[in-house]
Amino acid sequence: MMEKRALIAVGLAFLVLLAYQFIFFKQEPQQPLQKPAAVDTGEETTMMPATVQEPEFPLPAQKTASRKGKEIPVETDLYTAVFSTAGGTLQQYILKKYQENEGTNVVLLKEPGLKPPLSIGADDRFELSDKHFYASRENIMLNQETQTDTLTFTYSDGDRSVRRTYTFYNDTYRIDIQDEVSGLPDYWIALGTDFGIHSAGDSYIHSGPVLLEGTDRVEFTTGKLEEPKTYREAIKWIAQEDKYFFASLVPVSDIKEAKVWKEKDSAIIALESSPGINNFILYAGPKEYETLKNLDMNLEHIVDFGFFSIIAIPLFWVLKVFYSVTGNYGIAIILITLIIRIPFIPLMNKSQKSMKKMQALQPRMAEIREKYKKDPQRMQKELMELYKKNKVNPVGGCLPILLQIPIFFALYKILMISIELRQAPFMLWIKDLSAPDTLFGHLPDFIPLIGGFAVGPLPILMGATMVIQQKMTPTTLDPTQNKLMMLMPIVFTFLFLNFASGLVLYWLMNNIFSIAQQFYVNKKVSKEEQS
Predict the structure, then answer these.
(1) Which element (helix H / strand E) includes 400?
(2) DSSP secondary structure of 59-83
(3) Which pLDDT tens digit goes with each residue over 484-497?
(4) How many CB atoms lie within 10 A of CB 353?
(5) Are residue 298 and residue 315 in the same domain, yes or no?
(6) Which domain holds residue 254?
């Protein structure tokens, strides 16, 4: 019975892993940097003259008069942003410290989209997003000498008036926003439809709108957003996110509600407040957990460590400590794999000894099964007596695995979402621990199911260690079942081809440490049998 259950479990694990790989693991499309096209329509600009001489900006889009207003470039050491006199909104946002594989900067906003970020309006129509505002400055450049500066947009049509003030800081992604609004029946501010989403290719990790209600993350999938969703209690922030980056709007003053809805296949997330003075913090950048936690704005919750976050967060801290010492995240992964195994060594030794004894009892167990095959209850009774007499636990081998499952999933989540591993090299040919090992290229596209998968030495080595581990591990399976089990390394090797190199490295090192431990136990048991 136990052998059949083991085989069924292995079969189910295979099906689940196979489905998980082919459904969720997709190639992440690269989004190259695109320069916004400034269209000169010849219309009169609403800009006020600048009070200071304009410095030269090495920006992809210079200040020009477009059909949507004049562009106001803002430059800091961390990002390049382009604002517009059309609604006082954000038109483009580029990170300077993060690059694509081809060397271009990561773009968190290429174009305004359906609703330009930070649009203002009433009844969630955002009708002021196309109105021409006066700007207090033609550009802003921050550096070590000029650490902070402000940009003010104003609008008035007699009935409605808006005064928006942005405050920029050179050494943080934080931008303070103050809106003084009058003449509107109510007041809405939108985060935008695409702002903060650099790449939506990893469908197994959430990409799109998210908000924090108290301490609970609430995620939204555009395709499933059939009707508007409204939240009114303890809203800490709203955001648009992908795997490594995000853009968020944190209310400082009181708000009435947060709302998420779909419009023309795009998800919109916005906040509602009352006319008057409203203050917000815009934060758009990388998901750096420690940096966000130090901001004291609850933004660290944008980093989703999953169900086992209580384990993942301290493990992540240990991983970063190892990195601070070694300067290499690959070595840090090896060290944390070893550290994780240490508490389980006594339990695993005991389990492996038990399995070794179970293997020795296999002939006697076969006799009992054959003798009492027509009497299952008597068979189980005799088997239990045999286990008791020889002091073995038939389920002892499962306990160490069960105890390690939460740790495995916690570490799995860390290695999957941590921006610290993005483009982090290990050694030799492994230049990016967040990407699959592609040293040998990719499998031909015409191969069913796995066509296009990456091929590299790391998953192959991992599969080889699984074979060695199976050969060394005691088993109570018969020869036919053993042959079926030997298929598992092959299956896992193909599954791991498209896994991030950091995950494969963890699994490889875990296998190597298991082999070393099994070798020690086997040798010790042999000596005990001879004595």
Answers:
(1) helix 398-417
(2) -SS-S-EETTEEEEEEE-SSEEEEE
(3) 777 888 888 988 89
(4) 18
(5) no
(6) 65-304
